[in-house]
Specification:
five-stranded mixed sheet, 5 helices, Nucleotidyltransferase, domain 5, 13 strands, alpha+beta, 234 residues, six-stranded mixed sheet, 2 domains, elongated
C-alpha cells in the first residue's frame, strides 16, 4: 500500500473538460491520468458529469495505488472566480521593514476583503508589489528602514456555495479537498517556465511563488508564523 505522501492527486475541472492526474512525488511520473472533454462550448461547470467521471475513475486509481484517495487538489477554470485588490499602507513608520509589519498588513487586508466580499472564500493571496518611500519593489526588501510603507495585495476568491458543491460531490467518494487553485494563475507560471501544468500546480502548492501567502489551517499550527515567510491562517 502506498503512503499518501508518495503521490499527489489533481483534479482539473472546467466547463470544457475534466482531468484526473495522479503523480508520484519523487519524480512526478504519471501514475494515472484520464480526461473527459465536453461537446460544444459550455460555459458552466457540470457537476453531474464530474460525479460520473469520478465514479468511473476513483476506484481505478485506488486499485493502482493500493490505497484510498483521501485528499485531492482541485484546479478550477471558471468565471466564478472574483479578484479583489487592496492597498495597505503604514504611514510614519520610521522603522525597519520586518515580518511583524507584513503579518499585520496582510491580516488586516484579508479581514477587509472578507468583510467587503461576503459569502466568498479566499483562494489565493498575492503580493503584487511593495512600496517603500515611493520606491516600488516586486520582492520584499527586509530590514530596510523607511518612513512610509505599503503593500498592493490581490485576493482570488470563490463563492462559498460553489466550494460546498465541490465538497458535496467529493464526499460521495469519501474524499476531501486538499487545496483549491485557480487554473489561470497556474497557467501563467507554467507557460512562462515551460513546465507541465500539474507539475507547476505542485510547485505552486509548495511555495513556488515567493509573493503568494500560504493559507494554512489553524489546527495545523506547529511552527513559527514565518518559518515559511508567507504562512497565514485561513
Amino acid at each position: 500500500m502506498k503512503n499518501d505522501l508518495d503521490f499527489e492527486v489533481f483534479l482539473f475541472f472546467s466547463p470544457q473538460k475534466i482531468i484526473l492526474s495522479v503523480n508520484r512525488k519523487t519524480d512526478f511520473k504519471i501514475i494515472f491520468k484520464d480526461e473527459f472533454f465536453f461537446e460544444g462550448k459550455p460555459n458552466h461547470l457540470n457537476f453531474d458529469s464530474l460525479n460520473l467521471f469520478l465514479n468511473e475513475n476513483v476506484f481505478k486509481v485506488e486499485k493502482i495505488l493500493g490505497s484510498f484517495v483521501e485528499k485531492i487538489n482541485i484546479i478550477l477554470e471558471t468565471k466564478d472566480f472574483f479578484n479583489f485588490q487592496i492597498s495597505m499602507k503604514q504611514h510614519d513608520y520610521n522603522e525597519n521593514v520586518d515580518t511583524n509589519i507584513i503579518q499585520y498588513l496582510i491580516k488586516s487586508a484579508k479581514y477587509q476583503c472578507e468583510k467587503t466580499i461576503q459569502n466568498m472564500k479566499v483562494i489565493h493571496i498575492l503580493i503584487d508589489s511593495y512600496l517603500i518611500d515611493d520606491v516600488h519593489f516586486t520582492k520584499l526588501p527586509l530590514n530596510q528602514r523607511c518612513k512610509n510603507f505599503s503593500l498592493d495585495i490581490s485576493f482570488i476568491c470563490l463563492p462559498d456555495e460553489l466550494i460546498k458543491h465541490i465538497e458535496k460531490t467529493l464526499k460521495n467518494f469519501q474524499i476531501s479537498i486538499s487545496r483549491i487553485l485557480n487554473a489561470s494563475y497556474i497557467d501563467k507560471f507554467a507557460n512562462a517556465s515551460d513546465i507541465d501544468f500539474f507539475k507547476m500546480t505542485s510547485k505552486i502548492i509548495d511555495g513556488y511563488n515567493e509573493n503568494e501567502v500560504n493559507l494554512i489551517n489553524k489546527t495545523l499550527k506547529n511552527k513559527g508564523f514565518f518559518e515559511k515567510f508567507f504562512d497565514i491562517f485561513n
